[in-house]
Sequence to fold (275 residues):
Amino acid sequence: MKPARFDYVRAETLAEAHAVLASEGGDAIVIAGGQSLVPLLSMRMARPGVLVDIMHVADLGGIVIKDDAIRVGATVRQAQLLAWPELAAHQPLLALALPFIGHAQTRARGTVCGSAALADPSAEIPLALVALGGEIELSAAAGKRQLAAKEFFNGLMSTSRNDDELIEAVHFPRTRPGDGYAFIEFARRHGDFAIVACAAMADAQGVRLAVGGVADFPTARDFGPLDGAALDEAIEDFAFDLEARDDLHANAAYRRELVRQLGRKTIDEARRCRV
Ligand SMILES: Cc1cc2nc3c(=O)[nH]c(=O)nc-3n(C[C@H](O)[C@H](O)[C@H](O)COP(=O)(O)OP(=O)(O)OC[C@H]3O[C@@H](n4cnc5c(N)ncnc54)[C@H](O)[C@@H]3O)c2cc1C
Fold:
């Protein structure tokens, strides 16, 4: 199939992108790396009147350390963040999770913020944002706001972004001395979206596990210093609270079992990695 007709605006400035989004209402949408949007257009699952290409807006690039976070601008491609020499030193979880996103070819085009905007429940970047307590920087002609990841992702491929807003950047908290991280995902083949993905972060206070691919959006739970059978029981409760559903790839019981097994393994690994 071919996409339905649309107008194309190549924005050169952020103000231009904001102006088109404001004037067209929900009929205009951003295109970034196009890795998810182009197939959706071709299948006519998305039929926008206007595509606003933001990839030529100079202000939207850059990976910058800002206070205690890594700020990743809207045009930064997944491969660029993965190749950033300081990535593992500033945030080991990203260095562990990013290689699981699609393939080298899709990472070379797909953006970090585009993945957050798409909000696929199995996607690694939304999962990392929720696991780490990251933030989403949204902007529109009317102004800016910054939302915690756990408030931003609010349903199945649904976010709190308004139609006139774009994601200007995402913020990943930097690692602190003594933190440990682990990431494990199960997919049919490497490069497929995860059936279940687990990210864990351990510090002196305890451990947090975030799970993708089960609930409608990535979800995190803090387990404090729990260990042994008590931890297994708490993970069991978490697995049920995620309200897994059956789909083509796996049924709900199988997903819960993956959360039990991989969740525990990811937590143990994060604790082992504490330095
Ligand atoms: C074969 C294949 C395998 C893949 N496997 C995985 C995988 O395993 N894990 C994974 O996470 N992803 C996977 N993906 C998806 C890939 O990571 C996409 O690149 C990403 O989800 C979207 O980024 P993009 O820059 O290409 O966005 P686009 O395709 O350009 O846009 C996607 C959506 O986000 C919106 N959008 C994009 N940027 C912004 C912004 N700055 N502000 C507001 N809205 C915006 C668009 O309007 C659109 O609705 C795969 C894709 C392919 C083709």
Remarks:
- Residues 252-272 form the longest helix (21 residues).
- The mean pLDDT is 97.
- The first strand starts at residue 7 and ends at 10.
